[in-house]
Amino acid sequence: MHALEHLPVPGFIVFENYDVIQMSDTAKATFGKKVANILDVIDHGSRTKLSRFLCPSMSGIKVELNFCMPQGIGLFDVYHRWRTTEDGDTIGFVACVPRQSDLEEVLHSVARLEQHRVSGESIQTTQESQEEIWSHINQSIHTIEELMGILHSDLIEIGKGIYAELILKELDSLRTLIQEHAQVAL
Questions:
Q1: For residue 102, what are the CA distances in angstroms to 68, 126, 148?
Q2: pLDDT for 157
Q3: What pTM was computed for the model?
Q4: What is the DSSP string of 109-160?
Q5: Closest CA to 164 of 174, 177, 154, 179
Q6: Separation CA 126–CA 101 (nearest Å)
Q7: Partners of 92 in beta bridges
Q8: What is the dihedral of CA 109, 113, 114, 117, to 10 degrees?
Q9: Which of 61, 143, 56 lies closest to 106, judged by CA?
């Protein structure tokens, strides 16, 4: 029995050309099929990124990739290690950790706030309403941070990584300021 079978996240053992040697039961369940080549479940927009970062020379580096699943596109943090076998083949051990996205929750909060505005209702300044507003703002910041995380490596590659770092730093400062203000207001 191979340890890959017990992996709680989708996992693969692949050759350097991404042909799958073995995949975990979790991977079969997540992607809804047995995969012959990992490229078969990678979104077209993530394929270039995969070929740059999912290789022996980048072993140990986490990369964010979009995977195609039966229910749509999913974002995963991909961790990988490579080794050379006794036969001289280079194989990779790949673990795909799904990213949790609060985007739908944020969109739902925005829709509720818009509904209040459209119906002419004013948002009351009760403690519950204030907590909901601060929660919404915090979720929005989280979503922006996730989106920046997706773009971060691409910005670094084109020499604009400093801008991504600046945006993330400003979001962190904004979150701190909002948390302080929310505690004072409540």
A1: 19, 25, 14
A2: 76
A3: 0.54
A4: HHHHHHHHHHTTPPPP-SHHHHHHHHHHHHHHHHHHHHHHHHHHHHHHHTT-
A5: 154
A6: 28
A7: 14, 82
A8: 180
A9: 143
How far is it, in rounded angstroms, from Cα 59 to Cα 56? 5
Q: Each residue of 80-89: pLDDT tens digit? A: 999 998 999 9
Indicate the helix (H) or strand (E) that contains 51: helix 47-53
**What tens digit of pLDDT does each residue of 52-76 get?**
999 999 988 899 999 998 888 888 9
Torsion over CA: 69, 21, 52, 80 (sign): positive
The C-alpha atoms of residue 39 and residue 77 are separated, in whole angstroms, by 16
DSSP one-letter code for 33: S
**Looking at the DSSP assignment, which residues form a beta bridge with residue 40?**
none
